[in-house]
Amino acid sequence: MIHLSTLETDHRTPTISRKMTPSATSKTTEMFQRRVKLILVLDFPMISSYTTTGLSFSFLHNRTKPKEVQRVISSQKKSRKKFFTPPRRITWRLRSVLRHPHSTSSLHRTKMADETSAAAGTSTDPGAGTESNLRTTKPGTKRLFLTVSVLISFLLGAPFLLKSTEIHRSPLPSAAISSLSDHLHSNPPSFPCHFQAIFLSPFKRSDSLLSLSIAERIKAQFSAQSCGNCKFTVSVTVDSGSSCHHEGDAASAACLWECGGGGLVDAIEGRDDQGIDELLLSAVNERTGGCAGRVYSVFVMEGRDERIVIGKHRHAWMVLKDLDDSTSVGSMIGTVFGDYFMRGGVDKGEYIPVGSDGNVVLSFSLLNSNPSDWIYDWDFQRTGEVLLGPVLEALAPVANITMESQVLYHAPKSSISYWDEKLEAYVVNTRDLPFFVNSNEWHLDTSLSASGRSKVLQFVVYVPSASECPLYIRTPEGEMSKTNAFISPMWGGVAIWNPPGCSMQSQGIHIVRDALPTQELEKIIEIFIGQLRLLFGLNSNYVKPSPKFKFLASEKGFTNWELDLLYRQHTCFNLLSSLSTLQSLSTLVESLPRMIVMDEIGKQVELSLEAANLAEKNISLGINNASALSSIRARALAEDAFFHPSIMSISYSSMEHYFAIYMPFFAPVSLHVLLAAVKEVKRYFAERSKYLAFRASKLKSS
Amino acid sequence: MGGEGTRMRRRGEAGEARERGEARVGGGDHVRGGEVRGNIGESCGNIGARWNEILCSLFHGERFTSRPLTGEGVMASHTFLSLLVLYLYSFHLARPIHCSVGSNGFDTTSVLKEEFSEELLLKPLPDYKVLAHFHFTSTSPPSSSNGKHHHLFPKSIAQLVKKYKIRELELSFTQGRWNYDRWGASDPLSTANGKPPGVELWALFDIPTKEEIDATWRNLTHSLSGLFCASINFLESPTSYSAPLWGFLPNNGDLRYGALPREAICTENLTPWLKLLPCRDKAGIASLLDRPSIYRGHYHSQRLKLRSDGLNGIVIEQTLSVVLQPIDRTSWSMHQLFKKSLTGKCALAKSSKVFLEIEGSLVSQNENILELVGEADMVTNDQHDHSTIYQYNVERYSEHEALDIRVNWKKLLQVSFLQAPLHASRFLMGSGNERGSIAISLQSARNSTKGLYDNSKNCFTRVVIFQVVPWYVKVYYHTLRIYVDGAIRNTKDVVEKINVTPSEDKVSPGTLEMMLQFPCGMMSAALTLDFDKGFLHIDEYPPDANQGFDIPSALVSFPDFISRRIYPDSISSPLLQSYKGRNIVKSYTEVLLVPLTTPDFSMPYNVITFTCTVLALYFGSMVNVLRRRVSEEERLAKSKDKRRPGLIPLLISKISNKVRGIKEDSANQSQSSQPILGPKVVFKVVLIALIAVLGHYFLNTS
User: Fold this and answer.
1) Which chain A positions have a beta carbon within 8 Å of B662's beta carbon?
2) I want to staple B526 with a disulfide (CB 3.0 to 4.6 A). Which of A43, A73, B432, B483 is the partner?
3) φ, ψ at B679 (rounded to 5°)
4) What's the CA gap between A46 and B328, in Å, rounded?
5) Are A240 and A302 in contact (CB under 8 A)?
6) Percent of chain A at pLDDT above 90?
7) Going by DSSP bridges, is the β-strand pair B198-205/B255-260 parallel, antiparallel, or unpaired?
């Protein structure tokens, strides 16, 4: 046993016991050589800012503690500090000791002394002597068992605690959501459509090239991201009166054109476009009986003045000089199918302003900028319902639309207008239009009839005050806008109407009180119908690719093929939006692990997902009504789940809160239990090895 | 004395009968009009759609020509002709229209129009304050398009009425308390406009079942709170509203009443209220509403009252009563009061008038108390000479000549206005947080209403008390004690009719409706009711729970006393018209503030921490005791005692250590710093950092 004390500490030379046997000495030396541990006992009795003083090294066997060292340790424990600087001499001595453990006689002597005292201890208390390196009895397991069992019961209890303090979270089918969403994104739903080209010409020979070039032209219109594409089939029929030839594939035989329409060419002669349109409609209904509502047709005829007319229903007709050039004819037919019947001449159309419950409220307002100049009233109730009624009826499959009207006063615009000499009018530049809508003074927003999550589209007729009359919108080219109106997507449209007496600048005593002339109102409503088309993502007017093209406008505002298009886009948009809502909900729920998710939300999510799956299936099967309905349902349910009041409110109990509640108990208790267990285990093993050593020595001696 | 009273009553009856007669005549007119319209409608059905259109437009044209034609009459008639032609033409082009649409043209809207009128009544009060009472009336004739198409009438209110099937509704926002003593209690203005502090809402529904009414009420409160930016939605909970049968207003159980005494009123409530006016505060009388001036007043009550029936359509009365204190007590003008001048009417108002009402008591006592500056358009007295009205038509005034009424008090004197027969006040008795009692005291206001009493035995005054008490104030209704002139009276003798709805904990409030009969000669009466204070759940306390809880005002009404003022028919004013109605004299009592036992809201956490600490201590010491080895410790202690040096030598050695240490340290500073950054220390630091990083990472990712 070696005790190396500092110079400051008094080195006590112990007396060597007479009882000591050589064998025991050699044994301890051996043990010493095997396990040497350096214990540094640091002492700073008084800490000053720059210095340290006392330092004592105990260099001893790991099992024995000479009493004087223990005393030094215990007396110095109180002021133990981390920071110290050992004196050089001691370092040196330590090194020398480490190098030659047996060289110093004093060290040897110390060891001998300890051995003696240990032996003495063993003799006095054979059971459980901490200071002795040998023990004669087996160490007891009572306390060990106790502490470990407490620890184990704590560990066993932990899952129960976690379970009982768990936050109720209804499981969301996030895997199914993301898989469906991925599927839809990589592969947007496409609706089965059938296109047929019918040649009403006795001289046309059937040509396989034709249907190929049509299909090629249509495919060129495909863009991966867009919604509402067709999964199309193309068939070409040559109906020459006497012979009949089909080519291409149709969804079913019933959809094929039933030949015998040779008389159509003669019947068309002498009719105007509207008449032809109606005639062809009846012909289509008659001859493709099975799927009259689902087939898009182009009739091709031969004639001198070339023209292409796209009708109000689901068909178009073209009169061409030369039918033999299959590629050019095919590409022309393909243009009609692809650009118009399938894509509606637009490439966007992502946003359809329909509320998530499928309701739209059209709110029409007549805004009198300054009623002290003139007050205009309107008879919207009658004119509006007459003109807009058919439009709303036509849009019924896409949205349930209601309308209301009001007249507001003292509602100036908020952008600045300038006097333009050239136009002799006040003008608003197009770049100022975003500031035209004055949300402070235009109280358009109140609509209680818009229940739930309906969408309100505002249509505003703005009557300027005398000081800014006549008011026009100037296009960037410096010209006056023809309609004097503009739209704001997803909000609605504004039309400026200049009162007739405005150029006179009459600021008389009498306030002009008048109604908006019916004719003017009709004009404005026509503009609004155009704006509604734009808001729904259709063109207000088609840009004609060539002067040969002609579009027949429907009095309903929307032609049948446009409605089909809206229908497709709306279904697809609903589907995608429901999935994106669901996905963001599941991301949100995952990102907040301590958020309460109620069962109702889980149920809504499940139902919404179910409806979305159903819609997707119905789309591919071509069941339009069912797919639209379930897509609306999917979206409504997804929105319900996302905007559930329990999510909006503070139902998030944070981890910090959890810890704050359980820390005061579990931190001190677990510390006690853990330390006690560790100490007991350590002690048990230490005692056992002592006992084993004793047994070994006993065996040796015996 | 009695004679006078009966005369008054009889006269009242006569007036009532006359009024009823008028109403009958008016009603007859309406019916006839309806018949005529009906006939036209039928004929339209017979003749056919096109003729119907012509008729429609003719009718329409008639409406145009009924405009006052002045200078541009010729022009207008030209435009009318051209319009007519265009109109016919447009319908000629359009497709056939259903007769129902056409007959809508004959609807009452084309005959009766939506109307709006604005009035302001100024009234000098006896304590030199001024009452300014703004009164705006909007009417919408009965029409199928109510809630859809509106010209002047606020669309949102019409939609509210339609959606919730409201027959009558009154919403008031009040700040301050109407001083019944001084400002009058039995004139129509104070009867109608004295409102309890905070928000009061009541509504009569046109819905058959109780459940549906409750559900509608809940939705209505939400809509109103959205509309008026107030927390009216707190009235949604069944604990806050009640359904009085006759104490508030006689009804068939379709009335709901709720009050929020603590709601603060400010501009955010005024702005949406102003939005309902066609001119808002941009023009007309409402432009006087200078926010700092009106919110400085002593009393501020903003009210919306609407009635809807098949005969008159929807009528909304929006009133704002403010009691202002002029800077100069003896002389004030409108400009001084409002800091704004009235420069003209709202262009849309049918009539725009300012009235100055001088109470009869001020005029009769001495003709020269008040002096008016400014010429009135009309001066008139009411039937009983209770007051004098000076009428000013705002139309006459313009920016150059603003309307400014000035009133000078010539002589300062104390008078008071017409008092209610009994002056009611309510207070709390008892102390502590356990129980108390509510007392309502009624003091006879004899001096001013002398004529209404005599001391004969058969004369009784009926008093109706309506009181809603929240559930946490648990009133024991059997403890009702009634004192008349200081002596306790048997309740059976005094109570004529009583209806008690006891409160149910956390479900419904208690409602007390009580009709009492007091002898006419009574000087004072008092009612007391004992109650226990309930305990609330911690979630149910409002944010400022220590302030106490408000018990809404009780309503004390006197069914035998009618406040009405009948003015000559030459004044057509909706405001004065409303004075003619049978308004029962009533007054609201004070709001009571009940302090309840309020817990320390940080208590739960304190309790958790405290209990946990105690438990942890207990547990820790238990574990330590269990694993303690007493014999071993004793032995250790003994051995320590043997070797321990005295305290003083230890101290000396420490001090000496310190002194030496300083010297050594200063010498060896360069070497001493080495072990600080030893590999072990670095390893430990790195290990701890690693554990921290890992812990942070796992906490974040989970």
Assistant:
1) 48, 50-51, 53
2) B483
3) -60, -30
4) 80
5) no
6) 11
7) antiparallel
* Secondary structure class of A99 (helix, strand, coil): helix
Q: Which long-range contacts (CB under 8 A, 24 or more apart) does B25-34 make?
A: B27/B311, B30/B311, B33/B108, B33/B111
Instruction: Outline where DSSP puts E strands in A240-294.
Output: 244-248
**Which amino acid does the sequence have at B670?**
S
Contacts of A382 in chain B (CB under 8 A): 56, 101, 104-105
d(CA A334, CA A273): 22
Backbone angles phi, psi at B147, to 5 degrees: 90, -5
Cβ neighbours of residue A303 under 8 Å, at least 6 residues apart? A319, A320, A321
Residue A509: predicted pLDDT: 53
**Gap between the Cα atoms of A558 and A564, Å rounded:** 10
Give the C-alpha distances (Å, rounded to integers) separating B430 from A415, B294, B329, B546.
Answer: 65, 38, 41, 18
Percent helix, percent strand, percent coil in chain A, to nearest 5? 45, 15, 35
Measured CA angle at A520 (ends A514, A521), to 5 deg: 85
Percent share of chain B, pLDDT over 90: 36
Contact A567, A397 (CB under 8 A): yes
- Chain B stretch 95-154, residues whose beta carbon is closer than 8 A to a beta carbon of chain A: 95, 97, 101, 104-105, 109, 145, 147-152, 154
- Conformational region of residue A622, where left means phi above 0, alpha means psi within -120 to 50, and beta covers everything else: left
Strand order across the beta sheet in which B524-533 lies: B422-429, B435-444, B524-533, B473-484, B487-489
Test A45 with B655 for CB contact under 8 angstroms: yes
Q: How confident is the model at residue B203 (pLDDT cuts 50, 70, 90)?
A: very high
More confident residue, A238 or A14: A238
**Top mean-pLDDT range of A410-424, A664-678, B192-206, B638-652:** B192-206
pLDDT at B442: 92
State in Å, rounded, how far the first CA of chain B is from the last one: 87
Are the beta carbons of A366 and A377 closer than 8 angstroms?
yes
- Across A423-432, B250-259, B675-684, the highest mean pLDDT is recorded for B250-259
Please state, in angstroms and rounded to a whole number, the distance separating the CA atoms of residues B629 and A166.
Answer: 41
Question: pTM higher than 0.80, yes or no?
Answer: no
DSSP characters over A347-359: S--------TTSE
Question: What distance in Å separates the CA atoms of residue A311 and residue A300, rounded to the nearest whole number?
Answer: 13
Judge whether residue A138 has pLDDT over 80.
yes
Report residue B636's pLDDT band, with 50, 70 and 90 as the boundaries: confident
Cβ–Cβ under 8 Å, residues A465 and A512: no
B520-545 pLDDT, tens digit each: 888 899 999 999 999 888 778 888 88
Tell how strand A295-302 and strand A315-320 pair up.
Answer: parallel
> Taking Cα atoms as reference points, which of B201, B176, B126 lies closest to residue B362?
B126
User: Residue B681: which residues within 8 A CB-CB, separation 6 or more?
Assistant: B675
Q: What kind and span of H or E run contains B630?
A: helix B630-643
Summarised one tens digit per residue, pLDDT across range B138-177 is 999 888 777 788 888 998 899 899 889 999 999 999 999 9
State the residue for tokens 């226990």.
Answer: B532
CB A32 within 8 A of CB A2: yes
Going by C-alpha positions, the residue among A517, A411, A130, A158 that lies closest to residue B86 is A517
Size of interface A-B (CB pairs under 8 A): 207
For residue A334, what pLDDT is reported?
A: 82
Taking only the tens place, the pLDDT of each residue in B24-77 is: 333 333 333 333 333 333 333 333 333 333 333 333 333 333 333 333 333 444
CB < 8 Å to B613, chain A: 664-665, 668
Interface residue A143 vs chain B (CB under 8 A): yes
